[in-house]
Specification:
The chain is mainly β. It has a single domain, classed as 7 Propeller (Methylamine Dehydrogenase, Chain H). The chain is 3% helix and 48% strand. Strands 19, 20, 21, 22 and 23 form a 5-stranded antiparallel sheet that branches. A 4-stranded antiparallel sheet has the order 1-30-29-28, with no helix packed on it. A 4-stranded antiparallel sheet has the order 2-3-4-31. A hairpin with an 8-residue loop joins strand 24 and strand 25. The N and C termini lie far apart (55 Å). 39% of the residues are buried. The C terminus is likely disordered. GO terms for molecular function: actin filament binding. InterPro entries: Kptn, WD40/YVTN_repeat-like_dom_sf, WD40_repeat_dom_sf. One of its GO terms (biological process) is negative regulation of TORC1 signaling. One of its GO terms (cellular component) is actin cytoskeleton.
């Protein structure tokens, strides 16, 4: 049996102003294996890094000198961030102004002027530390309305390349990769043959617009090749995952799809277990979370969906999910964020080694429920203090709350630190 994974709130960080309202959340490791958190302002479209260490949980804003100048008139248009994401290469480093090793930021923006809406992508390539390379800042005007975007690494000519996947209002996924010999600027991949190689079985139109995407790269234990897994969730409830090895000759791929209830709000592909089982975590605006598992024992293949029963609530849409696998946990943990501000924690019993019959209870148990004052937009999980027990970060429109496991040795709040670097400084020099 598992010990309950109960969460206790460590502290809540109020965001300094409405202009820092965030719509993305991603944890990254620096070379010293310290966690850093990246999030994006909804209104300003600027990435703000948060440094997490073991010296307290208090915001520290960089002070800036201002001259007394008259306020400029408001522009005749309004802009808002539709979606954003950020990635960094191996060994990425952090300096005063944030990510600094061949990182990529991507922001999808909607601009409204005189009742007309236009859209564009803002992409920023970050230069390596101690390099004379110039940051590449790029604006790409879009003839379509973007709904979601996801930054990942996909192969190009057998080289792993930063790749931007953008969900379009026409129910397709657009692919952007750096142009060879052109300072790393991105361009859309329009060649249908190349699109099919990058997104096998996903390069055609979907039954409805894609609302969420996730990717995973799994190295092969018996060969130098790797397998790419790409999953998509649609507004109509259509869910699919494709897995392929681009170095296999001919390229091998597998594809699976399902139809679930309600618009899919979040998906996550979890790394294979010790038995090689691949897991797919799915959240729905209909108010539930379910998992799919691909088994390598018995008949093999994907098993039936397993619903987290306590998550079923049609009046409380699920907005985000996050799974965690840590050596110190006796079973997997799944964290759920809802529109009513719930942060729910589920644990999976280790006695279940295969999907239970439909008449059996779910192997997932509800361990704890915390309540925040507004909808939980994003969740992130990481072992911030290095004790082997994950901390959970829940983001709402105006605050970030940090939880950790209850009934463990809880350190004083002063031993955690959350440092905010001013968003304007992060975006210094961008176009």
């Amino acid at each position: 049996m598992n010990t309950p994974f109960n969460l206790v709130e460590i502290n809540t960080l109020p965001l300094p102003s409405p202009s820092h309202s965030f719509n993305s959340l991603r944890l990254c490791l620096d070379p010293n294996e310290n966690y850093a958190l990246l999030s994006t302002s909804v209104h300003t479209g600027k990435f703000s890094p948060f440094h997490l260490s073991a010296t307290g949980l208090t915001p520290k804003l960089k002070k800036k000198k201002h001259r007394s100048l008259p306020s400029p008139p408001p522009p005749p248009y309004t802009e808002s961030v539709v979606a954003s994401d950020v990635i960094g290469g191996n060994g990425m480093e952090w300096e005063e102004y944030g990510l600094n090793e061949s990182g990529v930021e991507a922001i999808a923006v909607q601009r409204k002027e005189s009742g007309k809406s236009t859209h564009y992508l803002k992409i920023r390539r970050l230069k390596p530390v101690n390099s004379r390379a110039i940051e590449a800042n790029q604006i790409i005007n879009l003839p379509y309305a973007p709904l979601a975007l996801h930054l990942t690494y996909l192969p190009r000519a057998f080289v792993t390349t930063p790749t931007l996947l953008v969900s379009s209002s026409d129910s397709t996924i657009k692919i952007y990769q750096p142009v060879l010999n052109n300072d790393g600027l991105f361009e859309e991949v329009t060649d249908e043959g190349v699109r099919e190689k990058l997104l096998p079985n996903l390069h055609h139109a979907f039954p409805s617009p894609v609302l969420t995407m996730d990717t995973l790269l799994t190295p092969s234990p018996s060969s130098p090749t790797s397998t790419y897994h790409i999953t998509c969730g649609c507004r109509c409830g259509y869910l699919c995952i494709t897995s392929y090895d681009p170095q296999h000759s001919p390229p091998s791929d597998s594809f699976e799809s399902w139809n679930v209830d309600g618009p899919i709000s979040a998906v996550q592909v979890s790394p294979p277990s010790k038995k090689g089982e691949l897991s797919l975590l799915v959240a729905s605006l209909a108010g539930y979370v379910c998992t799919f598992t691909r088994h390598n024992v018995g008949p093999g293949g994907w098993g039936p969906p397993v619903v987290l029963p306590e998550s079923v609530n049609g009046d409380d849409p699920v907005l985000c999910v996050c799974a965690a696998k840590f050596p110190t946990l006796s079973g997997d943990a799944v964290f759920v964020g809802t529109a009513r501000g719930k942060v729910m924690t589920f644990t999976r019993l280790t006695s279940f080694h295969s999907p239970p019959p439909s008449s059996s209870p779910s192997p997932y148990l509800l361990s704890s429920t915390s309540l925040l004052p507004s909808p939980v937009r994003r969740l992130a999980v990481g072992d911030i203090d290095g004790d082997g027990i994950p901390e959970v970060l829940a983001m709402t429109k105006d605050e970030i709350t940090v939880f950790r496991r209850k009934n463990e040795e809880v350190r004083e709040m002063a031993e955690f630190k959350l440092k905010i670097i001013d968003g304007a400084a992060v975006d210094k020099g961008s176009g």
